[in-house]
Structure prediction request, 475 residues.
Amino acid sequence: MSDEHHSGHHVNYLTIFFVLCGCTALSVAFDVLQFSKPVTMVLVLAVACAKALCVMMYFMHLKFEGNWKFVLLAPTTILAIGLPLALFPDVGSSYYTSTAPQTGVWSEEIAEYERHHKAETGEQK
Amino acid sequence: MSHSAKAPALRMGIPIPNSKLGMWLFLGTEIMFFTAFIGSYIVLRLGSRGWPTDYNDTHINVFLGGVNTFVLIVSSYCVVVAHEAMALKNFARARSFLWVTLILAFLFLGIKGVEYKGKIDHDILPGRIPETASQAVKKVSTQLEELVRSRFSRYIAAGVVSFKQPDDILTVANLIREVPSGTKPGVLTNEEFEQWRVSATTDYALFLKWQDLHEHVVAKVSLKYPAAPAQYLDARGQLKAGEKPPEITLDETKAFLAEMKQNPDYGALVSAHVFDPHPIVYGNIFASTYFIMTGFHAIHVIVGMILFIMVLKQGSALNEKWTDWVENSGLYWHFVDLVWIFLFPMLYII
Prediction:
């Protein structure tokens, strides 16, 4: 199906729709294929970025809008990227304090937790 | 001097309708709103030494998440087609596609509800998840206590026993123990009192089981070790130098609870009110981030639905005056889809 936009540009929305569906299937496939965690993370986030670009450019018509889109979206993009970057050093300071049981008796508790987890999921102890 | 030809009106600012400009500015703030949550999630996750990812811990269903992603993509497509139809003044077609979008939004929330129910049924809620074996054991004791207290409060409310301090569970328990052999209060009929007598025996037995577990949890000793104050002190006195009593374990608490759930008198009550102990390391922070992100996203879905309902309310009177409204609602809806595009891999896959 082909649709004619009122401002003159020509977008086949159905193609975009199928691309988005394909990307979603790809994300699930990356989960099923069970790559290493960092590889999966990079792959699915790359697919998510591709999907987001498709939605913004074609469904939200940003591809066909004037230069005002840069003026309007640049500050928010900078702030949106800046916020996680500003928070990032907090990765070093764990959410739980060093006296929390999760960290204080970590090895013992983790061992017991994993033992039970294996027992519940039917794996070999 | 006069101008014979009309000069084109000088137009200042951005060449888009004010409503569209307003919507884009609003979406700019929304981007930062969700980035704050997503950024915090990334920082908390990377800053934690562990994170629950197994289905038994999180009850995250990748299939349902995938279906919801598909639902939102279809709805985004429908909105863009509806906007196109509005621009071409084909209002009937626009209405049809907006109806489909609205139904898909309901479907999305329904699936999300199923997912939420899975978590609520397993008590995977912020602040309620035991993260260590000792917390899991304590939670069983706390939930049993809540059950006992709720059972006991019925006796005071019905006037079966009368006591000015209902929170004093030990005294109330002693009063309830006396009910089967006691005299009938004037406010009750013989039939009612007979039912309370039977119930009192069961509830007192339930209280004794909770008290037994509670004493072991407080003393931090194995269920095989005496924990009642006098016997505990006696047993401790017999320990050799440097010897410690065995600690209560998750295994024996599980067995204790399983036995309670088999009891013909109060087993059904215990099954309904006490969760099987299942410690989930970093479960609370997982649940907090999951619910705050998906919860705010769901609120945005509901707002989008309201926007569509306002258009659909026009029925066959829908006209070109609503074109900008549909375009702006569409932009909002695509943004809701965009947020989900990132939430799905981060919460369901990674």
About this structure: Residues 37-59 of chain A form the longest helix (23 residues).
